[in-house]
Amino acid sequence: MKIVKTINVPHPFPYQGSKRGIANYILPYFPSDVKCLIEPFCGAGAVSIAAAAHELAEKFVLNDLNKPLMDLWSEILDRSSVLCDEYERQWYEQQSDPKAYFFKVRDEFNKTHNPHQLLYLLARIVKGSVRYSSDGQFNQSADNRRLGMKPNTMRKNICGVSALLGDKTTINSVDFRQVIKNAKENDLIYMDPPYQGTSFTRDRRYFNGLSYEEFVDTLSCMNEQNLSYIISYDGITGEKIHGKPLPSGLHLKHLHINAGRSSQATLLGGNHETIESLYLSPSLVCRLENDKPAIKQLKALEQQEFAFA
Ligand SMILES: C[S@@+](CC[C@H](N)C(=O)[O-])C[C@H]1O[C@@H](n2cnc3c(N)ncnc32)[C@H](O)[C@@H]1O
User: Fold this and answer.
1) Residues 132 and 179 reside in one and the same domain
2) Ligand 1, from 65, 140, 199, 229: best to mutate by most atoms within 8 Å of Cβ?
3) 53-83 pLDDT tens trace
4) What Å distances lie between residue 154 and 12, 71, 74, 121, 250, CA to CA?
5) Which CATH number goes with the domain that contains 109?
6) Atom 8 of ligand 1 has which residue's CA nearest to it?
7) What stretches of 54-150 show up as alpha helix (H) in DSSP?
8) Calpha distance 2→292 (Å, rounded)
9) Which domain, by its residues, includes 49?
10) Per the confidence metrics, is the pTM higher than 0.85?
11) 118 domain residue, yes or no
12) Which of 30, 78, 90, 190 lies 20 to 30 Å from 216 when distance is taken between CA atoms?
């Protein structure tokens, strides 16, 4: 079940793996009293932006191990006007030779890690899909059929995101475990780690991968601390199941979301329908069961789950 209220939600930059397309299927699992929404693997932060648009949390913590990406987030939230001016300048400057201009900006970004340049690169790369070499150099190519989001549209999106999150958000760039350490029982943690299908091999899509064991150990500690969390974790594309399910010993509630053909189907290399896994922590399930406004949503979703069984 989708949140029915339709609000126009801005998005700051294209990012492969973004949960923009399914954020509305995740929000119904939010308790009605979330003090702080913590997103330790935030990428483009689609769920936090959607939650802010629906006023589902008082405060937000955005974190990603990719430091230049979080520097870009700081610009979006604190200096959006300068960032948009710089984007506009680059967008027009590229016009005479967009291909060569992209490589010039990419070379400079690899030396400076300038967030203004990162925004331009993200807007121009193939399917918003970042790629890094083994020595951490940004090496994705441009989609030369497109010149990137038009400056006015970019400004509208960036200013929209800044208005939603600007004065309520803390930015970090550390390993996910460090931000979780500060979580409290009345917070909610939404985790969208890199996909198992690639993060156990060498994951070039994101800055860094993490191991299944490390992730499971962290979840076990989070259960001991009664933390409320939601995890998006791999899924099924067509007949193929991606990734090892999370262990039953964690007592998570496992749900499925039909993500359609768009985001993950493309990400995982096919054109099939994708069913994404969503896991809820035991404390979150308990919290939702005692939360009258949330109970109705949860019941409807439990019925929908049978459709995929
Ligand atoms: C699937 S993406 C998240 C996409 C995000 N949900 C969105 O809507 O755009 C996973 C992110 O985890 C980050 N990451 C990988 N390992 C990490 C770690 N150990 N700690 C924190 N972030 C990490 C990657 O840089 C990447 O941006």
Assistant:
1) no
2) 65
3) 999 999 999 999 999 999 999 999 999 999 9
4) 7, 17, 16, 13, 42
5) 1.10.1020.10
6) 18
7) 67-78, 80-93, 98-112, 115-124
8) 18
9) 23-65+174-308
10) yes
11) yes
12) 30
